[in-house]
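Chapter review: from sequence to fold.
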Amino acid sequence: MNQTRTLLLFALMFVAYVLFTQWEQDYGPKPPAQAAPTAQADGKPAADGSVPGAASPASVPTDSAAAPAAKAELVTLQNDVLRLTIDTRGGSVVRSEMLAYPSEPVTRKDPTPPPARLLDDDPASFFAAQDGLVSNNGAAPDHRALFAAAKTEAKLADGEKSVSLDLTWADASGVKVVKRYTLNRADYVVNLDQRIENGSQATWSGNAYQQLQRAPMPKANWFKSYTDPAQHSFFGAGWYSPDSKFESLGFLDFQKKPLNRAITGGWISMLQHYFFVAWIPPADQNITYSTNIVDPNSASPRYLVRAFGPAISVAPGQAADSNARLYVGPKLQGTLDAIAPGLDLTANYGWLTIVATPLHWLLSQLHSISGNWGVAIILLVLIIKGFLYKLTDAQFRSGARMRKLQPRVQALKERYGDDRMKMQQAMMELYKKEKVNPMAGCLPILITFPIFIGLLRVLSESIELRHAPFFGWIHDLSAPDPWYVLPVLYFLVTLLTQRMMPTAGMDPTQAKMMKVMPLLFGVFFAFFPSGLVLYWTVNGATSLLQQWYINRSVDRAHEKARTA
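The token string follows.
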């Protein structure tokens, strides 16, 4: 099977995937109204994190997306890679700016674009990391309580290894909570320490919880849904448990498959293209994880994933600590598992992880050698071509021999006319006699297809390629070529490849389709990330050279046999 047919198969599958995902967005089932949370027989929290009953922990208050709690004072905490904005209303992290990742590619016209924002207090793209305490027998500051900040800004100074910001809440009963956020140098992990000081006359008992709450992705038009890689990346909740490993839940499935599970040694997250946020409770605690929808019937619902901790008891005059970690940053593969087990899986390659992970590792090694991600992609093509050389050699030699048989196949078509069965039988006898295998190209397809899809996932999901420049006019390998040079080159390569392919025995309609395939693929790839088009252009060019060389060798062997 020739390269053009192969690419046609890939294109049809990709288009089918895009159409299906867009159909799900437009016509998929919408979340129905949620019933009020009910107690469970085993005493575990319901979907909203509550366990009704006098002896049970207090429930976490329910928010309203339409009327959120008013903001109080906004304070900032910053190290050298991350700037956080914290609302003293609840002590929630309501904004995060990743200083090492600009929101747009760096160009001469805009050499200093603003940093990319992940957590956001804009209602249209609302995304907040919240935490708090709840209690059934005393006062407790949940994520809506009003804290007082020790200072309005805390910034990592030169020579310092960490920076902290304290928020304080106090109740008239004598219960006091000091919430401390700490950032270390060159780190996207935020350490949360809550100290509960019981100055009352009674034992205080309660539970700590952490949750992530965000608005859905704004609906994109058909053009953006096709051209924007972020539209095809997973967008939703993810969590990890030692037994089931990484699992994910898209927003459309929050109502159909809600999470409600007690896990020890896990974490919860909200994922999107390139970046994610995760709450990581202590690994030795049994935590109840759950999902919920805030205002599911409103025009702007919000999706929530929560970690509800075990009971905390503090005697009068005593103090206790509650800790958790918050990751706010990029999907830096190869480093995340050192923070928490399974955190590397947030790259979310799905069933292609077994192929995509080694491809990403190899691409990273090639980048460390070349210093340029575009060059690394070219080197990756050459390595894959070398690995598959024997298979593609058999494919191209079969194609070259079939091209030599075209006059004889044409004669068979004229001889048998419209009798397709006899025509096929005669062709099979001819192929057998000349030792040509028309199915020689099938095995390379079975191997290259998962590699192609895996590499598509790597190039689309790898944060390293985001805004990574190549040479000249290409400032972002994760975005389409702004001058369409690579798609044009790919069109020319595909056109030449198509002209070299054998057409013997091909249906006339199929032959006409093959003639327009180069143009269609050129237009199709004009909106692909330039890194992926670079891969296919180099891959097609090397295949073209290999096919040209094999055709020449077959021609010489045929001429030699004819004159012998």
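Two observations follow directly from the output. The CA atoms of residues 551 and 557 lie 10 Å apart. The domain at 31-43+69-348 is CATH 2.70.98.90 (Beta-galactosidase; Chain A, domain 5).
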